[in-house]
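Issue 218. Parser rejects a valid record. Input:
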Amino acid sequence: MKFWESLASLHFDVIERSENIRSDQQSDRDEMVAIVSVAKGVSRAERIATGSSDRTGG
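Output the parser choked on:
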């Protein structure tokens, strides 16, 4: 009986770890998206400030 208990415990540990890894990856992805958004906003603001007529969609 002890074997099955330890096996079940190990199984849940693995599931929990993989979920934690997945959520870490998601937060990293969200952070990257935020950085890119800020960078796009800055470059857009620079174009406006310099009076560049080069209007590209984005």
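Fixed in the parser; the record now loads. The two ends are 61 Å apart (CA to CA).
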